């Protein structure tokens, strides 16, 4: 499993529903991480979420996700096999994943 799919959510209930849906689609719970404000990553690991995915993300993407959490967003990441990537993306969209580019533009307009 060398693919990590990451989504940002505004609604905790939708993020948790996604986690349940991912498990229902065969993704093991220990391959799903949730990062939310004032809540540690749920998966037991000595490294922080951003350390784990930092090598996979550009500096910009990492900063955007960190800003999203700072502003109250919930990040769900799933480590999946190649055949599960598209399905995982579709599930994230169905559960209300934020359009990162659109959100970033909105933050810029806010100042």
Number of strands: 3
Poorly predicted runs = 40-47
**CATH level-1 class:** Alpha Beta
For the biggest sheet, the summary is:
3 strands, antiparallel
Structural class: alpha+beta
Summed over residues and divided by their number, the pLDDT gives a mean of 83
- The arrangement of helices and strands along the chain is EHEHHEHH
Q: Kindly report the CATH topology.
A: Alpha-Beta Plaits
Helix content: 40-55%
Quote the distance from N terminus to C terminus.
Answer: 39 Å
Radius of gyration based on Cα positions:
13 Å
Biggest sheet, spatial arrangement of strands: 1-3-2
Task: Please work out how many helical segments DSSP would assign.
Answer: 5
Q: How would you describe this structure to a colleague?
A:
By secondary structure, the protein is of the alpha+beta class. It has a single domain, classed as Alpha-Beta Plaits, CATH 3.30.70. The chain has 5 helices and 3 strands. It has a 3-stranded antiparallel beta sheet. The longest helix is centred in the N-terminal third of the chain and has 13 residues, at 12-24. It is globular. It starts with a strand and ends with a helix. The relative contact order is 0.27. The model is unreliable at 40-47 (pLDDT under 50).
Outline the fold blueprint.
Elements: E1 3-9, H1 12-24, E2 32-35, H2 49-54, H3 59-70, E3 74-80, H4 85-94, H5 100-110
Antiparallel strand pairs: 1-3, 2-3
